[in-house]
Structure prediction request, 272 residues.
Amino acid sequence: TVGTGKLEDVENIVEQALSLLKTGDGRQETGDKRQEPEDISGSLAPVSSLLSHVSDLAGENFLITVGGTREAIDPVRFISNHSSGKMGFAVAQAAAARGATVTVVAGVTTVPPPDGVHLIHAVSADEMHAVVINELKAATVFVGAAAVADYAPANPADSKIKKDGRDLMTLELRKTLDILNDVSLHRHEGLLVVGFAAETNDVVGYARSKMEKKGLDLVVANDITKAGAGFNTDTNIATILTRSGDEIELPLMSKREMADRILDEVLRLRQS
Ligand code: C5P
Prediction:
């Protein structure tokens, strides 16, 4: 499990194997005349669903926000949240593996980004908003997976705030721009808009009203109080709500697997 000889992360092995299967890598270059790979999808049940997806999102341009934002209080302090970026990166990785072009606008993340995506960094909600609006024209699917701060300090200090002589201090906050809402408001024809709703109670109810308020095509709702769901875990539990009224319950599964289930629904909306 550690050090030399540590088994590579199984999801990375699957990812690499899939990309080799897709490109037939190695055989043409070496002139090796080995047989074409057999259809192994039946014997590798969890992998077979991944194989069946290969390139079904070709032609789509995904724009995905990932991670948490940091809102400056002064040059050394900030307000942020526990987002790791795992769910958003999983969606980016899955979309790229299925043939889409992917641009990720990443805030603060605790895991490395996947290969094969165009990565742009944006630290604060305002920066993320500006980058997204700039990149939006080329997108065919927008996924708001970032945990964007809802409020930011109204007047961040230019120099470090001192504690001397103050037992109490008040921080005034202003509402940030809602990236997802603005994307939906200014959407061009054909753009599909996907949001996430992390809630602690009445999860589906809040998610459904978010979908209506923000004009979304699909919402992934999750109860972050459940074990194995939410921030900083490798797994998630969620309900996908679609604009056509469908409710798809996704039990505990890896975020990478969940990413494919979300993309299956995106594809279904595209084809409807
Ligand atoms: O309204 P709420 O913050 O719960 O909505 C969550 C969804 O909205 C997520 O998809 C998140 O990425 C997006 N969002 C955003 N900009 C904000 C706040 C939330 O894009 N300022």
Observations:
- Residues 28-33 have pLDDT under 50 and may be disordered.
- Residues 65, 125, 144, 146, 148, 150, 176, 178-180, 195-197, 210 surround cytidine-5'-monophosphate (CB under 6 Å).
- The radius of gyration is 21 Å.
- Helices lie at 10-23, 27-30, 45-53, 86-97, 125-135, 179-185, 203-214, 255-271.
